[in-house]
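Re-run with default settings, no changes from the original entry. Doing this only to confirm the output is reproducible before filing.
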Amino acid sequence: MLSRKPSLFQIDKSLSKPERVMLVGVMLSTDYSGANETRERDFESAVAEAADLVHATGGDLVRIETAKRERAQSAFFVGTGKAEELAEQVRLHEIELVVFNHELTPTQERNLEKVLQCRVLDRVGLILAIFAQRAQSQEGKLQVELAQLSHLSGRLVRGYGHLQSQRGGIGLKGPGETQLETDRRLINVRITALKRQLEQVKKQRATRRKSRMSGSLPTFALVGYTNAGKSSLFNRLTKADVLAKDQLFATLDTTARRLYLSPEASVILTDTVGFVRDLPHKLVSAFSATLEETALADVLLHVVDISHPHFERQMDDVNEVLKEIGAHEIPQLVVYNKIDLLPGKAHQAGILRDHEGRAAAVNISAVNGDGLDDLRVAMVEYVALKQDRK
């Protein structure tokens, strides 16, 4: 029977206390460009975000280790000497899980576990852990499981390193390889079944979308970096009760509501999963049915946490994902959220217009409601533009 190996992806909630985690961030020359100061700042931001991801799983982050390299080493990602240093820190701080803020190859992950003598998780596995904990709907659970199994299929060998490996000759086929082949086959069968179920979900979603669009209402999709405040804004505008928390990836499931803007304009507003830097391709693929809601919208409301020190980088990351799913050419209205967290009155609520006088962005606070009337005005203008183009 196939072992699901949930510990590869999630912190065990049954434990009396959270796992002790060490985060490893490596600054590769190939990953960062520009002046040294800019590269350092981007790297620090990436490590801070990884720390937030660890906290989001419920792990106890007890240590952060950083290093610089020209390029990743094929065996350990970090150098042999650094791997030994990390092993010493694991012993010293009784670390149970080491998280690398990069995507590791199965070989690197396996080698690191042998040296560190504890579990190792890469960035993809870490994000999958959060998604596995947060998925609520049946569709969300199917999508997460598909992404998990796709990630796991290349790492199965790690579970059988202590068994005899396959060798040539009659009667010399090892039990480890037999179990490995069985697990791989069962995983492939499950992946095929999941894809079939998600294809059915996609058809059902298309039917519901067609029904919504039969009234010819324009569709506005909320997009943005995770924890930018999309769900809080969605709840404020539609009086819905979508889960809104100050944490990464609080929302995984798409929700749609009709929103009355004025006597002349009503729209369909959808809340979607948040994006993140270097969003794993496995997740983009697995969540294709959900992300399709974004790609088929008439207007994107790009929600930005203006209080974040690297909000411009986050905007670029979101636009990269939009390009990947074919939604980069859809008109965008930028919504600068969380102006209430800025010192003084650095940003006043209101509409920011381009040189032609069209609404390009709106400053708001979804928490206290500042600027929401201005946002509605800007949305009405976009509805009018859409109708003029017909």
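Confidence is low (pLDDT under 50) at residues 1-11, 159-174. The CA atoms of residues 112 and 125 lie 15 Å apart.
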